[in-house]
Amino acid sequence: MTFAAATATVPVLTAFGIPLGLRPDFLVAGFAGAVVAIAVLDIVPPTGDTIVHLVRTSLRRMGVAFASSLTAGYLAPAVLWATNAPEPVMLGIAFAIGGGAREVLQRAIKRVADRVEAQP
Fold it and tell me: What is the pLDDT of residue 10?
């Protein structure tokens, strides 16, 4: 991934020449929120003491941090557009989105899965 920046805009991440619309500052703030949620709130608890359990827990924690960071990266600009809040406030909102993204995503996925299973 590289940074692509115009002269009057905020840098946006691109992958394979396709702009993703993700601002790096929102991604970092969301990642920090996810790390705090994992460390302080223990949202991904360990399952055992063997090396296999530790590796699985580490991979789950990395997946949660990645998904939370992406969620904050995509939702924070939408909140910025809707509320017209200043930048320092938006970094705090991206941090909060990253911290709470796991619970929200888990409920949304469960709701969609239940609807799919209920259809004949």
Answer: 63
Tokens for 24, please give them. 């790096």
Provide DSSP, 14-62.
EETTEE----HHHHHHHHHHHHHHHHHS-SS----SSHHHHHHHHHHHH
Residues 50, 40: Cα–Cα separation, whole Å: 23
The Cα 114–Cα 88 span in angstroms is 38
Size of the chain in residues: 120
The pTM assigned to this predicted structure is 0.74
Q: Chain-centre distance of CA 48, in angstroms?
A: 26
